[in-house]
Design brief:
about 210 residues, alpha+beta, Peptide Methionine Sulfoxide Reductase, Chain A, six-stranded mixed beta sheet, signal, oxidoreductase, Peptide methionine sulfoxide reductase MsrA, EC 1.8.4.11
């Protein structure tokens, strides 16, 4: 369960910050990989949110919630939430490079969170919610570092970017109930008043910058 879910749910309801209209939540397109499919790995807080961010982009077939960046070879949600495993909530993004580039995925990653927050995103706090851009080769590392340099030079944020840039080692898919969680649990208070509004703000702020699925 997300941190502060129950203690803050009444606040969210009173603040009326949720979405009252039906929302078309993006889901995976299929279980079958496309030809020449590639995979990218990103952590940016709650993986429920990260999943729909990437699944809303044209060229992404699926985003799988899981754990990466730690030392435990058998992580599960309960132990990851303690912070003891070193893992962060991460998504594996399965995409078609002929339809969307790795640099576009990196740009969407930084645009859909606050990369200056250390060990947290929004109401979620702890090392499991830290932001990490994992790279699998030197070219991906250069793309990530170039985007950080661009955002820093543009003074996009008033504080220093603290997102980790780390080599990819291993990814462990999360429990089945976490996959497509927002689509399957639209009435969850956290989903209704945090995840969906955050995603809608991301889409609205980036009209024309990314190709969103209809």
């Amino acid at each position: 369960m997300k941190k502060l879910l129950f203690t803050l749910s009444s606040f969210f309801l009173l603040a009326a910050c949720g979405n009252s209209q039906p929302v078309n939540i993006p889901v995976k397109e299929s279980d079958k990989p496309s030809p020449n499919e590639a995979v990218a790995y990103f952590a940016e807080g709650c993986f429920w949110h990260t999943e729909i961010v990437f699944q809303s982009l044209v060229g992404v077939r699926d985003a799988v919630s899981g754990y990466a960046g730690g030392t435990d070879k058998h992580p599960d949600y309960e132990t990851v939430c303690t912070g003891a495993t070193g893992h962060a909530e991460t998504v594996a993004v399965y995409y078609d490079p002929s339809k969307i580039s790795y640099s576009t995925l990196v740009a969407a990653f930084f645009a859909s969170m606050d990369p200056t927050e250390l060990n947290r995103q929004g109401p979620d706090e702890g090392t499991q919610y830290r932001s990490i851009a994992f790279y699998r080769n030197e070219q991906e590392k250069k793309i990530i570092e170039a985007e950080i340099a661009r955002l820093t030079a543009a003074k996009t944020y008033p504080r220093k970017i603290v997102t980790e840039v780390a080599p990819f080692a291993a990814f462990y898919p999360a429990e089945a109930y976490h996959q497509e969680y927002i689509k399957n649990h639209p009435g969850n208070p956290y989903v209704e008043h945090v995840s969906i509004p955050d995603w809608l703000r991301f889409k609205e702020a980036n009209k024309g910058k990314f190709n969103f699925k209809s």
